[in-house]
Amino acid sequence: MTPQQIAATYDRIASFWSGGDFNPSNGIAQHWRALQFVREAEGQDLRKALDVGCGSSGRIIDLLLTEGFEVEGLDVSAAMVTLARERHPEVTFHQVDICTWELPERYDFISAWDSIWHAPLSEHEGILRKLCEGLKAGGVLIFTSGGVDEPGEIFNEMMGQPMYHAALGIPKLLEIVASQGCVCRHLEYDQHPELHVYLIVQKG
Questions:
Q1: 37 near 202, Cβ under 8 Å?
Q2: Of 45, 49, 173, 186, which sees the most CB atoms within 10 A?
Q3: Is residue 22 part of a domain?
Q4: How far is the first Cα of the chain from the last one, in angstroms, to the nearest whole number?
Q5: Residue limits of the Methyltransferase domain (predicted)?
Q6: Three-state SS for 2?
Q7: Angle (CA) 145 150 151, round 5°
Q8: Range of the domain at 67
Q9: Is residue 135 within 8 Å of residue 164, measured between CB atoms?
Q10: What percentage of the chain carries pLDDT values higher than 70?
């Protein structure tokens, strides 16, 4: 599926993540773990963060604002961005495709939680390199991927809508991270037995 097709899928179901049926604690404990590394690396008061695939729930942006970050969000879905702006009118949001969007600056913290795996498999390496390059020295990136060893992609459904997921495989992810001058601080299968992993990486 193309990013535009993924956007159309999420446009149709965007309200789910801002409604009462979605668990707002999803991913929060993992982000708390990642934020500990930022605190160790940065001593300044004003820090900048980017939420890639921010969606409509606002939970990660809420956490980052509470922790004193100046936050930006981006999502390929226009409906998601509309709902996100309603929840956080003070935050800058970008309705863009991360495959082609150039980060306007470097950040202390970047989250890409359950988002970039929807991009075409051929784009994954470029996206991960872009996000690593978008970190300040000592900055931290948290992102999710499929917990597989080899590159692969699947087509399925979510809430009756067509969906796509892809993953480079853990060995390739670690290779890219290292080549970008970053260190993997944490890798965990956090939804075992599901093949869902998250990585915390830090710029050297």
A1: yes
A2: 49
A3: no
A4: 35
A5: 50-139
A6: coil
A7: 65
A8: 3-17+27-203
A9: no
A10: 97
User: Average pLDDT of the chain?
Assistant: 94
Domain count along the chain: 1
Which amino acid appears at position 52 of this protein?
Answer: V
- Number of Cβ within a 10 Å radius of residue 183: 12
Give the E-state strand segments of the chain in sequence order: 47-52, 69-75, 92-95, 107-112, 135-146, 152-158, 161-167, 182-189, 196-203
The distance from CA 150 to its chain's CA centroid, rounded to whole angstroms, is 21
Tokens of 121: 């498999």
Q: Which helix (H) or strand (E) holds 43?
A: none
β-strands 69-75, 92-95 pairing? parallel
CATH number, domain of 136, equals 3.40.50.150
Q: Quick: pLDDT tens for 158-190.
A: 889 999 999 999 999 999 999 999 999 999 999
Contact 129, 141 (CB under 8 A): no
Residue 190: in which H helix or E strand, if any? none
Answer for the pair 60, 111: CB distance below 8 angstroms, yes or no. Answer: yes
Tens digit of each residue's pLDDT (9 = 90 or more) over 88-137: 999 999 999 999 999 999 999 999 999 999 999 999 999 999 999 999 99
